[in-house]
Amino acid sequence: MSDASPRDPLASIRKPVASEMDAVEALLRTTLETDLPDVAALRDRVAACGGKRLRPLLSLLVGFALGRLGEGHVRLAAALELIHAATLVHDDVIDEARVRRGAPTLNDGRGNEAAVLFGDFVYARAMRLLSDFDDLSVIRDVSRAACQICEGELAQVLRSRDPGLSREDYLRIVRRKTASLYRAAAGIAAHLSVSAAPVRETLETFAEDLGIAFQIVDDCLDLDGDESEVGKSLGTDLLKGKPTLPVLCALERASPADRARLEAWIRDPAGAPSRSEARGLVERAGGIACAREEAERLLSGAVRRLGGIGDRVDVSSLEAFAVLAVRRSR
Fold first, then answer.
1. How many domains does the chain fold into?
2. By C-alpha distance, which of 235, 285, 234, 223 is closest to 260?
């Protein structure tokens, strides 16, 4: 990763699949074509903000590593990115976020109704793109991941303001709402590369662990990230009373007085301290460090699993991708 530019640390990782990533971008544009100017304006506003494209990149890197990268991988990558984009639009509505990728969110600029419906539009276009696959197992597996995302998001909302949420509960939610799409990206890409079942299963587990680690880091950044660098509204978990892993770790380690404050804040976010105060409390209890240690543990395990795929498979790009996804600052 040493030759990546400071502004785009993914640049060197994309190199082996650069032409395919360009094809994904072109397919995203054509898939979201519309003859309604107002809808096109919303599309262009979201598209202008770009994104890291981690899920499509993962699919393409799996195909590259396995030596069989084709048009199906490009179509899969575009569909997964559209599903992810739709979830982000809906997340911003739920979180009442005002900034995403350094620009005003759709809900902030055009209201919740337009944002929710635009998210639905993007999701519907993803399903239309998937319908071009003759292989029904691809459609089935992506649909399963989409269902799991909805289950995870719903479970998180239902367990908000609950200081009794356990680590196991948290991981169960994250495995669905975030890691399921990573798992689908790697597993379906391996299937399209006609890989043996053990290879697909190894890559699915690798990607699932990576997805969980990614979300843990995201939850840490919500507390200790720089909003100008991360490019989105931070502190939204605090405002919604969502007990994320750094907070759960802090609850396990905090003094009785600090634990009582945290529990009261989770139950009643309206009475929560400012983001800086909450960060100080969680950091003082070691919550952020504890959560990042868990993310590093998952990353190490994920990278080790790649060694079991076989000596003839070049997994260096996947390893670099995993490290960057977890050790990022935005």
1. 1
2. 285
